[in-house]
Amino acid sequence: MMTIADNAVLDLRKKNLRKVPDWVWERITLETLILAENELEEISEQIGQLKRLRTLDLGHNRLTNLPESLGELKELSDFLYLHDNKLTHIPSSIQRLQLLRYLNISENSISTFPESICNLSNLVELRATDNQLTTLPESLARLPRLRELHLRNNRLTTLPTAIGELSELRQLDLRANPLRSLPSAIAALPKLEKLDLRWVNSLPELNWFESLESRGCVIYR
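Request: output the structure for the sequence above.
Response:
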């Protein structure tokens, strides 16, 4: 017999799906939908019907675009996994996911940081590793609850001064970026515990590193 919990979770990972079956969009009581590790190239606009979703995993597919109706999932609060696809942009409608706490857009082909992400005021962890980002916007400061920012293996040469306004930030991962400078505002981040600069060969030793380390922040370099 199917339980309430069974009705709330649908796990279709590793099913060799090229298309999401239409019956999935009829499961309007779903709270968790896992479509990871398939061969999906698109997601129907009908996903917007799943208004109770709290977790959505679309990772490890072949997606090049996402539907604007993603923004209709206003109960999406726990996780949104979009990593390891072929995305070049994120729909602006994502800014309507005001409850979202975890977002992973890593391992895509995104060259311009999506400004819409900066409106996700409840975001606690953002993973944007292994993309083609060259800059970050000053509007990053609009993420007041962000604790972890993972930017490994992009094309960043510096960061915006506004990063100093992320007062809850604990971890900042900048590994394998061609950094030439960093704003001294990072030194004022009151809760920063880990600054990862491994495989960064272009950044000189900065005089504020010592002050960060003296208050317990670990700098990997």
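The chain has a mean pLDDT of 96.
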